[in-house]
Design goal:
- This protein has 16 helices and no strands.
- The chain is an all-alpha fold and 452 residues long.
- The chain has one domain.
- Helix 1 runs parallel beside helix 7, helix 4 packs antiparallel against helix 5 and helix 15 runs antiparallel to helix 16.
- It starts with 9 loop residues before the first helix and ends in a 9-residue tail after the last helix.
Length: 452
């Protein structure tokens, strides 16, 4: 069930590991896509805008949860690569203690503060209540977000990228059914879409947990291994918190940009919402390549195989460049038709803005590919603090777009926010990778310092 990424062709390993992950991210997008599609079709464009207006704060909080879980999984991959099963089980046990604590605190804080934050973001008054109803339920489901991302992260750290996808696929279909039932039959509105998301993700998390317990004997934690270890918890927080902050710092820029978009009216918010959901699908391969490189880098650092890391990076960049061209062509020729999945064909101005947004973003998709590949590789190599600094660059770029470009250029300024953020992040991450590599060459034995 596990996969050793420290031996064999890097290209084959990366492809074999990333393809299941790609489908996993694809199905994960179903949670937001189906919510948006059904809300737009059955509840109208104002409710579509209401869901979209929560996107940046959703990313701010849920992204922090996902980042923490990804960081916690890195020491697991290190122990797996080093062939240290007892040490790995102790890491997993302490991950569980920390995940429970973080989930409890974050659920309480976010459910209390979400309305004031929406008001602070200048959410249009005609969609404020619906936005609150949606995001409050999403935040109430933070514990299941931790459950799925923690369990799936541990499974992936051991080289199994397929199993979480299978359970996510099952829950995606459940999400579709619950969306239709809650919105059409029970008339729960946007809150029904949120409950469908939370319940479905909870099912996938429980399935991953049961699978780990039953199938991975190496992960059956013994009584003495459950003891909380302050030093180990400190190491885990040193990995997880910076990765969580990276998402959150990046999201602060998105919140500023979303606030600026809100001033353009609900039609602009609806266009960004639909374009964002389509972009989420188009960016899935980059997410998969990034997560693959986190595991690949973690295992090879744990095994002392620095010679394989640069080879893996080259292979991954080639894959990212090829897909960037495909995504651009999809946006140019199918951007308009894809927008009609969310909007009535009579909304021609909004549909035109959706296509414009998609084209402006996919033109710069190779920059996004590099952000994901290099950032996650650096994290997997054990240097998560660099992710925070890259997130600062992205935050600054989106803040500039929100404060300067949107007032000057309107909707065009909105479309420029992310491309500028990706370019600035790359300007930092690429030199940072070479610095990290040089640092590890000094730490590891001489036989691990061969550069291919």
């Amino acid at each position: 069930m596990t996969r050793d990424m420290t031996n064999g062709s890097p290209m084959k390993l990366i492809l074999g590991f990333s393809i299941p992950l790609f489908f996993g991210f694809l199905f994960q997008q179903f949670y937001s896509l189906v919510d948006t599609l059904i809300v737009g079709r059955f509840l109208g464009k104002e409710n579509l805008a209401a869901v979209g207006a929560t996107g940046s704060i959703n990313f701010l909080i849920i992204g922090f949860c996902m980042g923490i879980c990804s960081g916690f999984a890195i020491p697991v991959s290190h122990k797996f690569g080093a062939k240290d099963p007892k040490g790995m089980r102790r890491v997993v046990a302490n991950c569980i203690w920390l995940a429970v604590a973080f989930a409890a605190v974050m659920t309480v804080l976010t459910t209390i503060l979400c309305r004031p934050i929406l008001v602070l973001m200048k959410t249009p008054s005609n969609i404020l209540e619906a936005s609150y109803n949606y995001i409050w339920v999403i935040f109430l489901g933070i514990p299941v977000t931790f459950l799925y991302n923690m369990t799936s992260g541990v499974i992936r750290a051991m080289g199994d990228s397929r199993t979480p996808v299978i359970f996510l696929l099952m829950s995606s279909f459940l999400n579709i059914g619950l969306d239709l039932f809650f919105i059409i039959n029970l008339h729960w509105g946007v809150q029904g879409a949120a409950w469908a998301t939370v319940i479905s993700q909870g099912v996938s998390g429980v399935c991953c947990l049961l699978f780990m317990i039953k199938k991975f004997e190496i992960l059956r934690i013994r009584r003495d291994e459950w003891a909380p270890d302050k030093h180990l918890m400190g190491t885990l927080c040193g990995m997880g918190v910076p990765m969580g902050l990276q998402y959150s710092i990046t999201a602060i820029g998105s919140v500023i940009l979303q606030s600026a978009t809100n001033t353009l009216g609900s039609d602009a918010v609806a266009a960004v919402t639909a374009a964002g959901r389509i972009s989420g699908f188009l960016a899935c391969p980059f997410d998969a390549l990034g997560s693959t490189m986190a595991t690949y880098g973690g295992q090879n650092v744990g095994a002392g195989r620095l010679d394989r890391i640069s080879r893996g990076l080259r292979s991954c960049v080639i894959l990212g460049a090829g897909y960037s061209v495909i995504a651009l062509l999809v946006s140019i020729f199918l951007g308009g038709p894809l927008a009609t999945l969310f909007l009535d064909v009579s909304e021609k101005a909004i549909i035109g803005n959706v296509k414009f947004f998609l084209v402006m973003n996919t033109v710069f998709y190779f920059s996004l590919a590099l952000v994901n590949i290099v950032r996650f590789l650096i994290q997997g190599m054990g240097f998560p603090a660099f992710a925070i600094l890259a997130g600062v660059f992205e935050m600054v770029a989106r803040a500039v777009a929100g404060f300067v470009l949107v007032p000057l250029f309107g909707f065009t300024g909105v479309t420029l926010g992310s491309p500028i953020a990706w370019i600035l992040a790359d300007a930092f991450l690429i030199p940072a990778y070479f610095h990290v590599r040089k640092t590890l060459q000094k730490r590891l034995p001489a036989d691990a310092q061969a550069v291919s």
